[in-house]
Write a structure and sequence with these properties.
single chain, Amino acid/polyamine transporter I, 74% helix, globular, binds phenylalanine
């Protein structure tokens, strides 16, 4: 038998399987929980326009680049950079760290969603006017949200420890379309409520006077977060992709689906929000208050719809957090030679501790501040406002300046067998435009943000990684 140097790289079973996995990673809490409240806090329409521009010009280009790097090198985040240029290992390491930190708060929200599956049928919807207060009381409690978070994290652990098994894929194939249908249903309910048009105005009529450097940074960070970019996730997924697949069109499909779900969430939430006379700036509780309120108003089988909605939201969250955990676990397996099970257990244990702190920072530990913010915000702001954007910028610089143009062209056209008419445009964007946009936005954002010390801390971490990365 012929000696093979590298292990044969696993491939996705089918194009559909890959699309579901990549779209599953992209579509998550970012679209349904986060996008609406960020839009609500950042002025609605103006935020939406900037967000869409970020997705189109930055996000899509970076996703194509991540797929290309992953498939070209056939390696996950750290290995992909390292194999091309040792000095760039830190860019991959930053990705792994981002995965870690996002998992310091994501499962907390996943736990809320899981809890709401049960709360929907245990009386929450019986008192529609108290739904907002009930949410506040729930997340600030000291033990209840912890229990749900731990259950949520345990589900992740079991699946990742086994490798990505058929179970979650099967569940995703049923529940993601269910989520879609339910969103359409909620949109109809929402826009037909009296007073709904104020919500549509809020979402689609930009008020530019509300835009600051912060708004743009929030939109850019969200575009990375929602597309799972800037942390090696799509590099890893691309590395399992067959040479026959067309990368640009797959990237377009994933980006399109993700954007569609975010827009649908906006359409589902804002009209109802204004119809009920609620505030768009209520932050992370938005979806947990508005959606149950809509179903409570329905009476009858309303609670059933609410249950299905939160089941679907939990599954959307799961397919994302699995990918996040997988990036960290894959690093420990590939680069540290650990077996999958212990790698998963250690990773989950650390994530569990971070999540306990995050969850408690909503109530019991509200007074404990790290660089001026609580634990939940610490992990959130650090990743979404700094690490992901900088990670994306590093990837763009790496691809634009350290990889050969011919290699990229070869990868993106499958060795010249398929056309990618926009190659030159994409290359120009990645090489010149994307790094500059991100640098400018990051600088504007830093100048405008209140948590300067947190920003500086984030940048110091990146520099420390850059110095010590060769050991990784
Ligand atoms: N894209 C996911 C969401 O929108 C979150 C995520 C970020 C997943 C980064 C993987 C990597 O919820």
């Amino acid at each position: 038998m012929q000696q093979v140097e590298k292990k044969q790289r696993e491939n996705w079973g089918s194009r559909f399987g890959f699309l579901m996995a990549a779209a599953g990673s992209a579509v998550g809490l970012g679209n349904i929980w986060r996008f609406p409240y960020l839009a609500g806090e950042n002025g609605g329409g103006a935020f939406l326009v900037i967000y869409l521009l970020c997705i189109l010009f930055v996000g899509l280009s970076i996703m194509i680049a991540e797929f290309a790097v992953g498939r070209r090198t056939g390696l996950a985040a750290v290995g992909a950079f390292k194999s091309q240029n040792k000095n760039w290992t830190f860019a991959g390491a930053l990705g792994v760290l981002s995965g870690f930190f996002i998992m310091g708060f994501y499962p907390v929200v996943g736990g809320w969603s899981l809890a709401y599956v049960f709360k929907s049928v245990t009386g929450l919807l019986a008192a529609p006017e108290a739904i907002g207060d009930a949410f506040g009381a729930f997340i600030t409690a000291s033990s209840e949200p912890l229990v749900w978070m731990i259950i949520y994290l345990a589900i992740n652990l079991v699946i990742v420890a086994k490798g990505i098994a058929g179970g979650i894929e099967k569940a995703g194939k049923v529940l993601m379309p269910t989520l879609f249908v339910l969103l359409i249903f909620i949109i109809f309910r929402s826009v037909s409520l009296p007073g709904a048009s104020a919500g549509l105005n809020f979402l689609f009529k930009p008020d530019w006077s509300l835009v600051t450097g912060q708004t743009v940074l929030a939109a850019l960070g969200q575009s990375f977060f929602t597309l799972s970019l800037g942390m090696g996730c799509m590099i890893t997924y691309g590395s399992y992709l067959s040479k026959k697949e067309e990368l640009p069109s797959n990237a377009l499909t994933v980006t399109g689906l993700d954007t569609l779900v975010a827009l649908m969430a906006g359409l589902a939430i804002f009209p109802a929000l204004f119809a009920f006379g609620m505030e768009p700036t209520q932050g992370p509780g938005l979806v947990f208050v508005v959606v149950p309120t809509i179903f409570a108003q329905m009476g009858g089988i309303g609670p059933l719809f609410s249950v299905i909605f939160f089941v679907a939201l939990t599954v959307a969250a799961l397919t994302s957090s699995l990918s996040l955990m997988e990036v960290v676990v894959a690093y420990m397996i590939d680069e540290k030679g650990m077996a999958r099970k212990p790698a998963t257990y250690i990773t989950s244990a650390i994530m569990g501790v971070m999540c306990i702190l995050s969850s408690l920072s909503m109530g019991t530990l509200a007074g404990v501040k790290l660089f001026g913010v609580g634990f939940f915000d610490f992990f959130d702001i650090l990743t979404d406002k700094i690490f992901l954007a900088i990670g994306g910028m590093l990837l763009a610089i790496f691809v634009g300046w350290f990889m050969k143009k011919e290699d990229l062209k070869d990868e993106l056209t499958n060795g010249g067998t398929v056309a990618f008419g926009l190659f030159e445009l994409w290359y120009t964007l990645i090489k010149y435009v994307v790094p500059v946009i991100i640098a400018v936005v990051a600088i504007m954002g830093i100048a405008a943000i209140e948590q300067t010390s947190l920003m500086i801390f984030g940048i110091v971490i990146i520099l420390v990684l850059a110095v010590f990365s060769k050991k990784l």
